[in-house]
Predict the structure.
Amino acid sequence: MKVSNNLNQLLSRVKTIFGRDSQHEESQPNSDQRVRNALADVENYLADNFGTQPSALTYKEYSNGISLTSNNPTFSTAVVILTHANGTYNLPDNVILLGYVKTDKGNDYLINHLGNFIIFLKRLGIKHRIQHLAIAFSKEHYHTPYDVKTADITCVRLY
């Protein structure tokens, strides 16, 4: 229940950053097959490296992109791909946003696998012609690192 609550709070914050209403989906979903293929690769990566089952994954589609969240306690993450920024928090168009990662296996495990995941996302962006990789960092320091109330976003151009 707490993990689900935290996930809902994070998604709400990501929606706020993007200037979107967190209570409902857009009526015109994104149909970009390139973005769908990129998220399918993320799904395969999570399954191959952490045993993430499809039942632990949630997709949400919006007019300007798609989000994928994983609720696997070994390696939970939220990845958003935006095809149109629509003025969202100074992000460019065509960007992968890594919203959060967490694990129940401790900080050393997280640090090791987060590095590999970021390298994977960089290669994924180049493969699927996604030009930018953005990572949201918490501005506050909490006892639980996945509690993000406000975020700074660092964005790098991939090619």
